[in-house]
Amino acid sequence: MPFSKLGLSSLLTQAIQEQDYSAPTPIQKQAIPVILSGKDLIATAQTGTGKTAAFVLPILEKFNKERTLRGKRIRALILTPTRELAIQIATNVEQYGKHLSLSSMAIYGGVDAEPQKERLIKGVDILVATPGRLLDLAHQRALHFNELEILVLDEADRIVDMGLVGDIYKITDRLPSDRQNLLFSATMTDDVRALAYEFTDNKMGEPATEIAISPKTKAAATISQWLITVDKDTKSALLSHLINEEKWDQALIFIEKKHAAAKLVDQLAKRGIEAEAIHGDRSQAVRERILADFKSGKLKYLVATGVAARGIDIGELSRVVNYDLPFKPEEYIHRIGRTGRAGAKGEAISFVAMGDFKNLCAIESRLNHIIDRKEIAGFPVRKVVPVSILNYVPKNKR
Ligand code: AMP
Question: Ligand 1 within 6 A of 52 CB?
Answer without folding.
Answer: yes
